[in-house]
Write a structure and sequence with these properties.
144 residues, mainly beta, OB fold (Dihydrolipoamide Acetyltransferase, E2P), 2 domains, five-stranded antiparallel beta sheet, 1 helix
Amino acid sequence: MLTGAVIERTFRTGEKVKAADVDERTMQFMYEDGEFHHFMNTETYEQVQIPSDSIADEAKYLTDGLEVTVLFYKDRPVSITLPNFIESEIVYCEPGVRGNTAQGATKPAELACGATVQVPLFVEQGEVIRVDTRTGQYVSRVQK
């Protein structure tokens, strides 16, 4: 759990495996200082830090105040689970070019949270979109 290493083991029928001592807590993302990402428990105001390299895939969707589920193993934070969908503003994307749209053409868009996703040509800079954090795909525009 702590290193993320995969261990292959074979068990016989009827063997019992001891359950891991894991705990999930809802926490709020505060800030990142390069080496660590800092989270705060909204009930107890307890703060924890998670090494940035252990949550590199999820970190691109983190924004100040985002509530995530932090997984603890023996009271040490191990990983985070993002909400299924986030809403973020497009800070940069090329203007859509009319023409070959028969195949559902897309273009890259850079979001305020730091992620880059493929969006349809009709989506413009400054719009807020909904993104699926599990797949990293555009879902829809958000009405203001």
